[in-house]
Inverse folding.
């Protein structure tokens, strides 16, 4: 069963936009911008991070991602994904994900080498386009 509608998948892969990752820190939300790649075949979002976001995911795997495109301060579309995150403590997998993400955002391949890979399995997805 497809969770992410094809139209939303197209939006998620259309250009290098920031996602806002919401994690839980105890009983309070924590939101931070992240770069990401979306794999429509497996309906998985990959990101690399460190610090508070990584610690939060290790403590509570339930996350949300919000991606929105604006032009001149006006929303064109938004996609919201809810899912379960997993920290992948594998150096090779982290390097490969970092390479894919940095290529998408035109960053140096070796940038942010201290990060760890987080894979989010999408459980639900919603999207909206604005006229």
């Amino acid at each position: 069963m497809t969770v992410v509608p094809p139209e939303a998948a197209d939006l998620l892969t259309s250009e290098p936009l920031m996602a806002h990752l919401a994690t839980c820190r105890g009983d309070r939300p924590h939101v931070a911008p992240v770069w990401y790649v979306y794999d429509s075949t497996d309906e998985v979002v990959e990101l690399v991070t460190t610090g508070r976001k990584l610690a939060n995911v290790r403590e509570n795997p339930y996350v949300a991602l919000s991606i929105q495109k604006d032009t001149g301060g006006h929303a064109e579309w938004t996609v919201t994904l809810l899912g379960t995150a997993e920290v992948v403590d594998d150096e090779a997998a982290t390097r490969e994900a970092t390479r894919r993400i940095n290529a998408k955002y035109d960053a140096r391949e070796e940038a942010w080498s201290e990060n760890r890979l987080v894979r989010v399995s999408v459980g639900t997805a919603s999207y909206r386009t604005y006229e």
